[in-house]
Amino acid sequence: MFDEALDLDPLAREAFVKRCMDEDTEIGAELERLVLRDQRLIGSKTQSAVGIVEVSLDATEPDALKPGVVVGSYRLEEEVGEGGMGRVFRATRIGPDFSQEVAIKFVRRDLVHPALLKRFSTERAILAALDHPGISRLIDAATTTDGTPFVVMEFVRGRPIVEWCNAHQLTIEARLKLVRKVLAAVAHAHRNLVVHRDIKSSNVLVTDEGETRLLDFGIAKPLGRIGNTDATVTAERFLTPRSAAPEQLEAGAITIACDIHAIGMLLYELLCGRQPFAFDTMTPGEIENAIRHVAPPPMASRVADADLEAAKQRGLTSVRDLRAELRGDLEHIVQRCLRKRPDERYGTIDQLDSDVEHVLEGRPIRERQSDRWYRWRKFVARHKVASGLVAALFVTILLAITAIARQTIAIAHERDRAQRAVGLLKSAFAAANPMQINGANVTARQVLDAARPSLEATFETQPDVYAELGETLAEVELSVGLGQQASELARRATLAARAAGFDDKQIGSLLITEARALIAAGDYDNAKARLHQAADAGFATTPEWKLVQGNLLQHTSQARESVSPLQQAVDETNGRPATDETANLARLQLAQALGRVNRQNEAVTLLDETLRWQRQQLKPDHPRLTLTRIYRIDALRRADRNNEALAEAPAVLQQVLRVFGSRNSVTAIAYAALGNAQNENKQAEDAAESFRHALEASRASVGDDHQNTLRLAFNLAQLLVELGSHDEEIEGLYRDVLVRGGKQAETLRSTLVFWRISFARFLLDRGRAPAALAQLVSPESTEQLKLASGRTVDDFTKILQEAANACGCDDKLAVDPPTDCAAVLELTKQTQTAAHSPGNLQ
C-alpha cells in the first residue's frame, strides 16, 4: 500500500490514503504517517525525490564520492560495499567535541534513473519508521550539494550470521536462540507494513557482543538493474535469486510469506551447513526451476559423510549426531517455511517464532500438535523426573523379562549369523569342487570366486552379514593378490555397514581395508580419498591408518616420506602378538622403505628382530614367519650380502612350497627372490628358471593380467636378453606384457613406455630396425607416451631417433624408405612437448 501511494501524484495519493482510512482506520492512519514522514525527509510535501535529483544528474561526476571527501558533517573513510540501493561508505561524523562512526548510503550516480530515486526515498521512510534494536537505525537523511540523496545509518561492526555462528561453533540450540532475535526484528518490520524481501546471511550481521542487526531495506520496491553481480532483475524485482520465494520469481503478490521463505532458506544453511540446492553448480534457469518447482531435500540428506567439520562447528562429535539433530521438529519447521505456495507457509513471523520457541523448550510445535504420540513424547521430555518416577515401577517389573528377551534375541541373532556364515563357506567349497572329488586341489581363488554369489545374495536382505563377511573375504582376496576384486568387495561392504547402522569404528576399519586394496590395484587417488574418509572417522591416530599411509607413499615414489608413518606403526604395535596382521605388515613395509632409501643394513636388522619376535610365539612353518624370511633374502641381497641370501633362499623356498603350494602369489615372490640372488651371483640360467617358476605361480594365483605377473614376465625377458639366447621366448614375453599392460595404461604409465623401449632395443640389437620403429610409432605407443614422465620421454626420443636412422629415414636419396618414417617427425614433436610439460616432469 505504501509503494502504491508513492507512485501516485499528490492529489491522487491523498484520495488513496483517505480511501484506505475509510476501509481500515488503523492501517489508513499508519499509511498516512509513513507518507508524511517520506515527504518531510525529501524536504517538500509536493516535490518528489525524483524531481529533486533529476535537476542535477548531469552535474555530478561518477567518482565524486570517495574516501576523504566531506559530505555535510561526515567524512567518508572507505567504501564498504554496494547495497540494494547504491554505494555504502563507512564515515565519521565530525563535530567540535565528538566523533561518531556511521554508514552512509548514496544512490550510485552512474546508474540513477527515476524509479531508483523514488525507491531511495521509500527506503529512507522505511528506516525512519523502524525503531528496533535488531534493525540498523536511521541517524540522518539529506542530499549532497549536487542533489544526490543519502541516508546516514548506524554502522554495524559484525559478521554475516552464518559465518559468525560457524566461527563461534554455536550449537543448534544457540543458533535457534540467535535466529529468534532476527525474527523479532522482522516481526517489527511487518507490524510497520514493511516486507524486507531480501533476508539472507549477508544482510543479517552479528556483533562481537552476539547481537543481530538486520540491514538493507533497499528493495522494498521494484528497481532497475544496478550492476550487482550476485543479483538479478526478474519481473522488475531486484532480488537475490538464491533466497527468493517462488512468487518473487513469478511476479506474484509480495507478502510477508516472502520473508518467511527467506528465513527458511537462512535456517536451512544455519542448521545443516549447506543450502537446499547446489546453487554454485547451477545455471540461472536451473536455480529458478529449483526454487519454483523442486521440493527442498531433507536437511539431514544434505549432510555428507565428509562433513565432520560442520558437525564440530555445531558442538557435535560426529556427522551421525548432526543428522539426528536435524530430523524431526526442525525439519518440519524449515520445510513449512519453504513450501512453494505462500498460503501453506507460516501465516506470521510470530507463528514461526512460537514453533522455534517450542523446539527450544521441548514442547510440541504447531505443525504436529494433532499427533497424540508426538505430544506424549514431548510431554515426557519436558517432565523427565515426574515421568521417570511414574514409570520406575513399571520398568522394574519388566526389566527382568526384557533382559532375558534381549539375551535370547541376541543369542539367536548371533547363532543365525554364524550359521549363515558357515553355510556360505560350505556352499563356496562345494561350488569350487562341484564333483566332490576326494583330494581335489581346491585353490583359495576358486573358493573366493564361488563365495561371491552367495555373499551378494545377502547385500539387500542381511547387510550386517554382508559387511562382516565382505570385509573378511576382501582381506583374503588382498592376501592372495586380488587387489581389484578386494577393493570392490570392501566398497560394497562399507555400503552394507552403513545400511546396517554400524558405528564409525567399524566403518573406518572397512575404509582402511578398501584403501589397502586400492593401493594393490594401483588406484592411488581413490586410496588417498578412502584414507581421508577413515581419518574423518577418527582413524588417523591408529597404526592401521599409518601403515596404509606409508604403503601409499611408497607406491607414489615417496619412499623417504613413508619411513616416518611406518616407523610409528611399528612402535605403536610393539605390544601386539606375532599373529597380528598390522604389526607384521608394518615391519615388512618399513623394511622395504628403508631398503629404498639406501638404509639396507637397517632393513636387515629390522627383519632379524621381527624373526626373533615371531619365533618366540609362532611355529617354525607359520606363514607369517615364512613371509618375513622371503623379505630378508631380498634385503640381504640389497645390502651386498648376496652369499648369505643365496645360502638361505633354497631352504626358504622349500618351506614356502610346503606351506603355500606351487600356485600361490607368495610362492611367486619366493621364486623371484631366489632368482634375483642367483642372477646377482652370475647364475643367469638358474635365475631364468627361477623366474619361469615365479611367473607360472603368479599366473596361476592372480592371473595373466595382474601387474605383478606382468612385471615378472618383463624381468624374465630382460634376464633372457642378457643370456643372449631364447629370442622367440623373449619376443613372446615382450609382446604379451605390452598387450596386457596396454589395458592398464592409466596405472602403469611410464612403466609401460619403459617396457616398449626395452622391446625396441631388443629388436634393434637383433638387426630388426623396421620392427622396432613400428613398435615405437604404433597408435598404442603414441597414446601411452602421453602418460609418461619427462625422463622416460627423453629415453623414448633417443631410441626413436636411433630406430629412424637405422631404417634410413634421414636418407633423402633412399628409394624406398619405410612407411613408418613419415610418423617419426610428428612423434618427435610430441615427445618434445611431453618432455617439457610441467605435468610430466619428475
From TrEMBL:
Keywords, sorted A to Z: ATP-binding, Kinase, Nucleotide-binding, Transferase
Binding residues for ATP: 105
Any GO MF annotation of the entry: ATP binding
Keyword Kinase set for record: yes
UniProt xrefs under InterPro entries: Kinase-like_dom_sf, Prot_kinase_dom, Protein_kinase_ATP_BS, Ser/Thr_kinase_AS, TPR-like_helical_dom_sf
Residues annotated as domain Protein kinase: 74-361
Protein name from the UniProt record: Serine/threonine-protein kinase
